[in-house]
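Q: My collaborator sent me two sequences in one message, no labels, and asked for predicted structures for both. Can we handle them in order? The first one she listed is below.
A: Yes, handling them in the order given. First sequence, followed by its structure tokens:
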Amino acid sequence: MLKAFSKENMMKFGKNLKFAFYCTTHPMDGFWDLTHEKRGSYAVANVMLFLVLVTRILMVRYLGFLFNDTYWPKENIFKYLGSILFPLLLWCVANWALTTLFDGKGKLGQIYIATVYCLIPYWVVHIPLIIISNFVTLNEADLISVVSSVTMVFCGILVLCAMMQIHEYSFGKTLLFMVGTVLGICIIIFLLLIFFSMVSQGVGYFVSIYREIKFRI
């Protein structure tokens, strides 16, 4: 365990962390290097994802009252964690499955790393916004909303650049397959709902048989 925190590994982690931020400021070059120079890091991606999750929880708990109408004691923290982890998982799987069928060059791990790197602006911007939101007036509230919306749009643009470079697609083809990925996510959710519905009905059927037998005995 101590070996994981050796000076060499920490320097490597720092270098990979710097590269992750480079991808957000130079997306075309950065995501190209991520794929072709093998510069992506699962460790850095996991840390970035953790920061995104922490930011999401902090927004629910500490965002100013002008923007936040949630009652913290009754909130389920796993609901907010799942609202990020589940769509991220579906995005990676659906995008990989779809692009693999149409000569996409990206691997599942590369899609995950690149997508998480694209979320860096989310926590970089929103953590200061959480603090600022507690001091702004009603007239200044719109500015917070605009900055938040622009940040999310920027994250979407980064995802577009990442998928374009990873799969070596043109802009139009990348946009088309991103829409296809969203449709793929909808199909996966639909199939999951059918699966769990069938499982629920099957379990209910056997439970009813068990109760019937127990009643007769």
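Q: And the one she listed second?
A: Here it is, processed independently of the first:
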Amino acid sequence: MRKTRLLTAAALLLTAAAVTLTGCGAGNKFSETAAAETAAASADMASGFSAPQAGALANGAFSNTEIAPEESGMTDSADMGLTSENTLQPVSSNRKLIRNVDMYVETTEFDRLLSSLQTSVTDLGGYIEQSNISGNSISSGYENRRYASLTVRIPSAKLDPFVAQVSEQGNITNRSENVQDVTLQYSDIESRKKSLTIEQERLWALLEKADSVDSIIALESRLSEIRYQLESFESQLRTYDNQVDYSTVYLSINEVKVFTATAPDSVMTRIQKGFKRNLEGVANGAVNFLVWFIAGIPVFAVLAVVIAIITLIIRLVIVRVRHRTAKPDTASTPPET
């Protein structure tokens, strides 16, 4: 009697283990079938055990038996990206990073710098998205110096070499960089697009089998919505790809005579620079006055002629008035005897 109970317990343990393992790896239907087959096999196996063996199985004597990873179907924790402390190791993946750089540049050779920048952008495979140039040349003497605002798109892999070239060709007074990680947004859009694509394929299959007008209308309406959403997702992905593949550099270029010092100047240096700046201002004022005077000679000549004519007319009028007022006085005076 005791032998029969031990055999029955061993069979039940094997059956429970089989149900647990099959339930983790397959569906319910498959699990039930596998469990039934395993139970039958375990019953046959239990019938061949002796009483001591069945008792050892029921008491868990084989629980410490080592099983090779290849036989158990389990993999080592290192292969799963886990350390001995069960912490997840960083998995290398392609990040979607959008890099934007703002640079304020001073130059004493405005035309040369612009030409060099255009050549560098073309050589690096980029393009100038927006360009705005205003002001007067520094050689003209006007205070309104030339200024350029450029929006440059550069391949992300070549952004750092381009920034280094700009730094070598001009004086960088301010520089800032912004990096935006859109990996999660990009993955989310891709997942939604994939789900909609699968749904679209299933709806197409249902549309081919639809036999009523209402079903066809409903399916086509849903397909139109999916098509619109897919186009929107594709547009967003293309926008992200463009922003990730091509970094944006905002350049503000000022034409100057002397570069702005990056470090604070001493008192004597400031005095020298102030004296030099005022002297240049006086010289520029004198030159500007001379240029203005020489350029206005034709206007001055015309004004001189007009003033001369007006002056002549006024003198003639005064002479006539005096002549008229002088005649009555001569007539009233008695002749001398």
